[in-house]
Design a protein that fits this description.
The complex is a heterodimer of chains A (126) and B (251). Chain A is of the alpha+beta class and 126 residues long. Chain A has 3 helices and 5 strands; from the N terminus they run H-E-E-H-H-E-E-E. Chain A has helices spanning 3-7, 51-68, 79-95; strands at residues 20-26, 34-35, 101-109, 115-120, 124-125. In chain A, strands 1, 2, 3, 4 and 5 form a 5-stranded antiparallel sheet that branches. Chain B has helices at residues 2-28, 49-69, 74-88, 96-113, 118-144, 147-150, 153-160, 168-173, 177-192, 194-197, 201-222, 225-250. Chain B is flat and about 55 Å long. The mean pLDDT of chain B is 91. Classes of the chains: A alpha+beta (126), B mainly alpha (251).
Chain lengths: 126, 251
């Protein structure tokens, strides 16, 4: 993001229906895929203080950034990939400190509800 | 006009202080932010845990000063610290609300830096006001170009199948195609009428009231609480712009 974008924004909110990206992880090849980002609940007082809701939105933007990034190099070398990897790692560690490895994948759901696999990582060490 | 300029500026600074305070307290409470599992970990000295935490607390103190004491050169410090926070997160934290906050802080900083010039001060506030108007108008333009928004299906899709945690009562309501069509056009008319609102101070006040309700609705539906505070902070400049434009039209 450039500074010019920060001070001269585009203001294009909710302008088009895009694909919906969902991030999954598993801690070994035999376990089932689980959703990484669980939607937080909302209360009226979150109008004034909504850390987990905003962190959830921030993590969604990380995944969106990865799927829209036009990388010259391998996607695994990009900063977006590393940030998403860190995100999954933090969730895996939070789930169980004993976990040593994990994999993650991103599925894209189109407006017509069809799904396709965008990316599946190799085994990642913690 | 100069009194209104100064009063608007005073109110903007206090409100942007409040908006920043909401944002900084949220960052301090981010999950896994302060342990080894942090997603955006960095070895840059400014972003190390203790230093970055100190910067956030410093920003909180600056916010208190802006809220209770009003305009001062601390606005510039708030802008610098805010920019550091954005770099820490490799970009924005919460999209449009961060853009609006940065823009308001930058314009206020310019007014502080050129405090001897009422002309620069006026331009700074007019810039914020124009950006508030554009934030609605451009958003309306890009939507009306989209046939799916014009027929209500885009709004329906956002409410029923998105990654946002939309409350179940809203997704139930969104099943009605007719309601979505009406709501889509209410939003389009509201957003596209922003330039009309700056032709009269009374229109502007009414528009800001409707816009505040619109942002509250966005919080209820999508959880976008920061937008509410970020835009409210800029509204005195929108009012100032309306008074300026209407006075020019009357000449």
């Amino acid at each position: 993001m450039t500074l010019s974008r920060l001070f001269i924004p585009s203001w294009r909110f909710f302008d088009q229906l895009g694909t919906i990206a969902t991030l999954y992880y598993r801690t070994n090849t035999n376990s089932t895929w689980q959703i990484v980002l669980k939607k937080p609940t909302r209360q009226w007082w979150h109008l004034f203080h909504n850390p987990h809701g905003n962190q959830y939105l921030m993590c969604l933007s990380l995944v969106d950034r990865l799927i829209t990034e036009k990388a010259d190099q391998s996607i695994e070398q990009t900063e977006s990939f590393q940030l998403v990897r860190n995100l999954v790692k933090s969730v895996v560690q939070e789930e169980n400190q004993q976990n040593k490895t994990f994999e993650f994948k991103i599925e894209l759901r189109q407006p017509d509800r069809s799904s396709q696999l965008f990316l599946q990582s190799g085994t990642q060490e913690i | 006009m100069l009194d209104l300029l100064q009063n608007s500026f005073d109110l903007i600074v206090r409100l942007v202080g409040l908006s920043l305070m909401v944002q900084v307290i949220e960052v301090l409470r981010f999950k896994n932010m302060w342990n080894g599992a942090e997603v955006y970990r960095s070895n840059f000295w400014l972003f190390k845990k203790d230093v970055f935490q100190s910067l956030l607390f410093l920003q909180l103190m600056v916010c208190c000063s802006l809220i209770f004491l009003g305009p001062s050169p601390l606005v510039i410090l708030a802008l610098i610290l805010n920019t550091v926070i954005y770099f820490r997160f490799r970009g924005v934290v919460n999209g449009g609300s961060d853009y609006m906050t940065a823009l308001v802080l930058a314009a206020c900083s310019i007014k502080i830096l050129f405090s001897n010039s009422s002309y620069v001060g006026m331009l700074s506030l007019l810039y914020i006001g124009v950006q508030v108007m554009l934030s609605y108008f451009i958003s309306g333009i890009v939507k009306i170009k989209n046939p799916q928004f014009r027929n209500g299906s885009a709004l329906q899709a956002f409410l029923t199948a998105s990654n946002y945690n939309v409350p179940s009562w809203v997704t139930d309501l969104a099943k009605s195609r007719g309601l979505m069509l009406v709501l889509s056009w209410v939003i389009l008319i509201f957003e596209l009428s922003a330039p009309l609102a700056i032709t009269s101070s009374k229109f502007a006040v009414a528009y800001m009231g409707i816009a505040a309700i619109f942002h509250l609705a966005n919080f209820l539906v999508f959880g976008l609480n920061r937008f509410f505070f970020a835009w409210i902070a800029a509204y005195p400049a929108f009012y100032f712009l309306a008074v300026y434009v209407s006075s020019k039209l009357a000449q």
